[in-house]
Amino acid sequence: MVFPERIAGVYGPTGFDIEAIVTATLDNMFGGIVIVVLLLVVFPVAIMMSGALFAAVLGSTTKGAVDAAHADSEALALSESNPYEN
Q1: Closest CA to 20 of 5, 37, 42, 35
Q2: pLDDT of 39 above 80
Q3: Per-residue pLDDT tens for 4-27?
Q4: What is the largest CA-CA distance in the chain?
Q5: CA–CA gap between residue 85 and residue 32 (Å, rounded)
Q6: Who contacts 17 (Cβ-Cβ below 8 Å, separation ≥6)?
Q7: Which tens digits make up the pLDDT trace of 68-79?
């Protein structure tokens, strides 16, 4: 809703002042546009990047712990081998 005090001079001598109406409407919509950009672009990217970071840290710590626990077993050698080599 456009309030008259926000768009002083909308009614000029020739009728409507379209530039003042557009400026006041964009001023009122700026906060909403920022919120939409944050919700659709910034937050999903931040969530995906933090999930990827968490997965990398969890994977490296888990692999290190499992490799240390199975250092003398055949399972470690089998897991480190390349199944596509002849």
Answers
A1: 5
A2: yes
A3: 544 555 555 556 667 777 777 777
A4: 92
A5: 58
A6: 9, 10, 11
A7: 888 888 888 888
